[in-house]
Design brief:
Helices cover 41% and strands 18% of the residues. The chain starts with a strand and ends with a helix. Bound molecules: nicotinamide-adenine-dinucleotide and uridine-5'-diphosphate-4-deoxy-4-fluoro-alpha-D-galactose. The site of uridine-5'-diphosphate-4-deoxy-4-fluoro-alpha-D-galactose has 21 residues, from helix 7 and strand 8.
Amino acid sequence: MKNILVTGGTGFIGSHTCVKLIENDYNVIIMDNLSNSKAETVDKIEQITGKRPLFYKADMLDTSAVEKIFQENDIFAVIHFAGLKAVGESVQKPLEYYSNNLTGTLNILSSMKKHGCEKIVFSSSATVYGIDNKAPYTEDMPTSATNPYGYTKVMIEQILHDLTIADADFSVVALRYFNPIGAHKSGLIGEDPNGIPNNLVPYIAQVACGKLDHLRVFGNDYDTPDGTGVRDYIHVSDLASGHIAALKYSECNKGFRPINLGTGKGSSVLEVVKAYEKACGKEIPVEITPRRAGDIATSFADTKLAEEILHWKAEAGIDEMCADSWNFTLKNL
Ligand code: NAD
Ligand code: UFG
């Protein structure tokens, strides 16, 4: 069985990917410092799959801790989720974001090189399309960013690209996620942010269960069908399957390859609210407020490349994503 090191494996997307990896007969080794997740997630992954991943509570900034994992295990490939991800916080704490995301990634790459591990699947983001491109986004569009978090993704993609030029044996797939939502069907793992959520669906979930009063809709004067922001929401389990496809691709292809993971369809804020109301059987009170700084009108993926080269396509629609989010919310009140 191939050993896959999953950095950030107890996090939202990482935990769903660990489940899929185990279901696809990979041996999972998780490294996470638990800065934004809980150790119990390892138990939940075991409960779902019947197999317990090996877990290292370790910080990727700690070079000797990273090195120890590579010394103790023969790592076939790395799926690299670990990172700080809050856009607003990154504007307040740029040094922390650059240090954690960039230095952490460099540490992992150094250990990979030292131990002859040459395959990595990296968590990039649709945020690298910046504000000047027009949806649907294709992978050949120029990348840019508007905040430190986004720049860490642009810069890490550049580092990875440079690495594949210097070392022709390296295989890098940079997966550009659109808006992952939903949860595992079991309701055991899902998205559980600390404090008041920044993202739309976790916020709606807290309104639906009465923890928050109402949703503020950030602007209804965009150039979109109902005036509210349009995004490409993708079920986290579909996203997780995309990583298995990317891993298989990296086994037979070298070089740097950025690939979008989205559904190719956009939903507006008000459409998501409707779908969530259907899922939870309650009304979600909304207030229209001014636009949020930095938001764009419309973002959705061109999915042709993923279909062509990964043979992967997202399956779940927005109703199923909201139903699974609500199931997780109810089971974790
Ligand atoms: P998450 O916060 O749930 O998971 C990230 C994990 O990384 C957490 O468990 C955290 O504890 C861990 N981590 C952070 N810094 C670490 C460090 N120094 N050492 C070890 N572990 C560390 O986030 P997520 O939503 O699962 O996102 C995973 C990846 O996907 C991130 O890189 C994120 O930027 C990227 N991404 C997420 C989204 C999204 O909307 N969720 C969209 C695009 C890209
Ligand atoms: N929105 C609201 N009210 C809220 C929260 C969000 O109206 O309380 C709106 C936003 O204005 C936007 C849409 O809902 O139109 C989605 O917003 P999110 O914050 O959920 O997601 P974003 O598209 O802004 O950003 C997310 C991640 C980024 C990532 C990007 C692309 O937060 O890190 O998706 O993957 F880069």
